[in-house]
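ok so i was messing around last nite and threw this chain in just to see what happens. nothing serious, just curious
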Amino acid sequence: MIRMLSKIDVVNMEYSMQLTFREQWTDSRLAYEKLGYDSPPKFLTVPHIKNNLWIPDTFFPTEKAAHRHLIDTDNMFLRIHPDGKILYSSRISITSSCHMQLQLYPLDLQFCDFDLVSYAHTMKDIVYEWDLTTPVQLKPGVGSDLPNFQLTNITTNADCTSHTNTGSYACLRMQLILKRQFSYYLVQLYGPTTMIVIVSWVSFWIDMHSTAGRVALGVTTLLTMTTMQAAINAKLPPVSYVKVVDVWLGACQTFVFGALLEYAFVSYQDSQLQSDQAKSNAARKAQKRRAKMELYRDYEPTLRERIRRYFTKPDYLPAKIDFYARFCVPLGFLVFNVAYWSSCWVMASRLYNI
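result:
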């Protein structure tokens, strides 16, 4: 019986649980139903003679740390039935390793194996079998308090027989199927990074001559994106393959950095054009400016004219670049989202057969 599933540690690839471990076998030497008792007891509870009985030498290959509970008494019992059937039960807490595949993180399923094997006896001596009615019992509410995972299923049909130079050893395998809670990462990862990318687009709507504002916005969003990426990677183990979260963060950082580069290019083009024009028509430009000041001194554009000005393609090249960026960059991010989520769905379908 699994009593508690308390921690799933992705960095160390391990999980902790508390369970009631039960084994049952028959030792005909301990049968007392034919000893002449008028009404033999249903069973005998004799934990104090444990060291005098033969008990299977079961161990857990994936165990990293474990202990049996002793407060305020040894949490185990040993029952002997009239026909010699023995039931051994003990409450233990165990930390077990789980080889996690993180290619689809944080849209992944994890399959954590928990094996039990005889340490010294081969299959000629011991054969393990699951209880046919309820091989693994779950205490109500187990796994419901995990912050990032949901326990979706437990399977016990895998064959894990161990074949070594010293013989073949019987094995039973329990597989925990854990589904990562996507809602947590939607709020903590995908939502904030999307907002940072959108904030970086504000630069396209700021006047190209507002250098301080546009540079500050670009650098701030880029640093924020880099900090978030470092914080997310700190919660993951170093692996040799690319995860889907790496693709997402890399794309978001590219869009943010691209907005900063776009302004650098616009500013460069503007300074070049201004320099060329200043050499040829400085006087005419000053005269036009004075004429415009006289013409628009008392003129205040309406809201409709301001909106139309923002959505009207200008003739000046640097302004034209900003104009196209306002619509092409969000469209590119939308196309990336469609491709990203479609690819994730296809990969999950192939990997998990869903």
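not much to say yet. The chain has a mean pLDDT of 86.
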